[in-house]
Amino acid sequence: MRPIGVFIPSIFVLYEFIRKDVGLKHKIKYVAAFAVAVGLVITPWLVRNYIVFGEPVFSTNGGYVFYVNNNDYAVGTWSDPFKYPDSPMLKYKTEDGFDELAIHKLGNQLAKEWIMKNPKRFIELAFLRIANSYWYRTEDIMWALTIGVNQWHPITSKAVKLQKLLYRPFYIVLFAFIIYALIRFIRHRKIDFTTFILLIFLYFNAMMFVLEGNSRYVFPLHPIYTMGVSIVIYNVAKKLLPKRFWAILS
Prior knowledge:
Strand content: under 5%
Shape: globular
Order of helices and strands: HHHHHHEEHHHHH
Number of strands: 2
Number of domains: 3
Largest sheet: 2 strands, antiparallel
Distance between the termini: 48 Å
Structural class: mainly alpha
Helix content: 55-70%
Number of helices: 11
Strand order of the largest sheet: 1-2
């Protein structure tokens, strides 16, 4: 299980709490409602994990991902840890896969130790993960066109080129919006929907900064990011286009 998305409600809660136009009573009700909803969703999974693993485990994927992206052979995106030279994880590999809990614990331990010993390389990989997620890698469209194990549809190469052609300008405008939202929040203390988009962006990018960079993790956020991009385009167009144009639209 990848639990990153489970914590999105916490962003809603934070957003509600920093809003100035919402009373404390409403905020408390909002938090309570989210706590109950999240509890109802997560509890069955926690119970299941306790039955399977014999201890309270939220996810067994975290340590694996943490290690894959923070070691001497890390490349800023996913790589197979079982193919690393003298991989410490090989001893936990099984015919059907691997010992999830053992890999989770070992991965957490090894990744933390590696970061402490290699802080400079960790920072380099962190920025590479962000760059891979938004600029260099195209796993989202590639895996959408998968037709077999390591086999892709003949149009994949053309689709990848089209994706880069469309996505890169989109992301440039997105990062312009993020800077705009940061300035509004930090300098002018403006808290509105742009702040919510900013919080979503910061949350997921913080995860990718430490864990795995992958365009597939950015793609599901496009509906939210598109609203931010639209705000930038609208404001720029409003300044550049004549007033009579907007009068016609209104």
